Amino acid sequence: MRESARRSRGRRLLWQPESVRARTTLGATVVVALALIVAGYLVVALLRDNLYGRAELTAEVSARSIAGQLASGTAPTAIELPDDDEAAQILDATGNVVAASEDLAGLGAVGDFAPAPDPVTAETTETTESDDDSDDRTEDDDDADDDDDDSSETETPSESADSTNGAVGSSVEYATVTLPDEDAPYRFAAMTATAPDGTAYTVYSGASLETQEEAVDSVAATMWWALPPLLAVVALTTWLVTRRALRPVGAIQKELISITGGDLSRRVPVPASRDEIHSLAVTTNTTLTALDHAVSQQRRFVADASHELRSPLAILRTQIEIARDHPELLDLDATLADVVRLQDLAADLLLLARLDAGERPPHNEVAFTELVREEVARRAASDRVPVRLEVEEDLSVFGVRGHLARAVGNLLANAQRHAETAVTVKLEVEDDEWLHLDVGDDGNGVPAGDRRRIFDRFVRLDESRSRDDGGAGLGLAIVQDVVLAHRGMVWVLESPEGGALFRLALRRADRRPLRENAETGGTGG
Questions:
Q1: What percent of the chain is modeled with pLDDT above 90?
Q2: Whole-angstrom Cα distance, residue 95 to residue 204?
Q3: What is the pLDDT of residue 39?
Q4: Burial class of residue 135 in the structure, from the number of CB atoms within 10 Å of its CB (0-12 exposed, 13-18 middle, 19+ buried)
Q5: Closest Cα partner for 436 from 504, 498, 490, 347?
Q6: Is 368 exposed, middle or buried (0-12, 13-18, 19+ CB in 10 A)?
Q7: Separation of alpha carbons 257 and 7, rounded Å
Q8: How far apart are CA 522 and CA 23, in angstroms?
Q9: Which residues pair with 387 in a beta bridge?
Q10: pTM score of the predicted model
Q11: Is the dihedral of CA 57, 62, 65, 67 positive or negative?
């Protein structure tokens, strides 16, 4: 029942607007819609400009043809004006219509109801056919005729006009005009022409924009009708692609829901694709592995701690019950030893628990040479074998003095427990940056296969179990945790005396980088 509720809640989340799939689909659809609208607007604008340009060209060609005929001396009424999708009109100098096509018949001058010309005026240069050199040649001929004995005749004004060629204006102006009783506007081109007799005309020639408007409207309508289906395809494609891309996420989520039920040995499925989801799955599995290891270690720790505490507590209870009934049988020394053992075990467990919880007390500069001397001197009265001490003066480290003293004390206690006749302690500098504390004994040593395992918690080798009078297997584990918390190292070697040599390496305080000092909370020395 609970599993089905979780699945239905997961399906509802996929359809809600705050889901990744919905947001991705909505965002992609909006972006594509805006891009298509802008692109469609640009296409329609370019199409309109192109078609209008063609209409202007048609109107200009027609106007220039009519003006050329007028300039050549053709009467306005004799010119064949265009019809159908084109219109033309010829005005004289007084503004009267002297000729018009069928669409403009009966209407006034186009210029009377046309708007102001477009700001852009197309300039076209036409060279007049009159040449000043002809006048010069005429004057020279007149002078030559005067020198001749034959009498010259004077030209009449009409003959002079007939010998002058007409001209076409040098500029063309455009205007869009909507004619009465016409649905579509016309694009007119206006230019002037001068007949050979000196009469000035204005020519209006226009091309209908009906076809162009229909083409533009058709393209625009097609785009608007095609927009919704295209957006639907984009939305559906984005939805399906996002769904396929997020399918591994759903599988990871389902597996995590099962894992949270308590089975940390399971892992989320890793997709074959080498993408971000693959990296997420790998990282999740790495995190689950570390979590599984930590939980397993914590469970073993609790189980081992319970087992180790059970023995001294049971012994104490037995001694107290016997003392209650038979006070004369109470062994106070043995009872005190059990209490001390129980107290040490509790202290070790609390220290490990604080280290596991990430406790990081402020690190300060610690005179390590002095600390080693004090630990050796403090244990001298109870040591089973003498300690040979070799230390260099004025060596210091950054750390927690109490934790470092506990680590050194545990190494000394371990050496005393396994030594035959002597324990050696040597403190020296290595590479002018690290200091090494070597604690060795002349016992049986540690087999090579167990040199890493002895730093685990509650681990005691068979030899140590037979000779240990109270150790719980936590001393070396505390040493390793303390050293790692101080960015150091600890490992086991073979001592020159044949036993075990524990080497502890720490960075010197005057050689520790400032950045590391800041991370550990210490002050520079």
A1: 16
A2: 12
A3: 92
A4: exposed
A5: 504
A6: buried
A7: 10
A8: 49
A9: 423
A10: 0.50
A11: negative
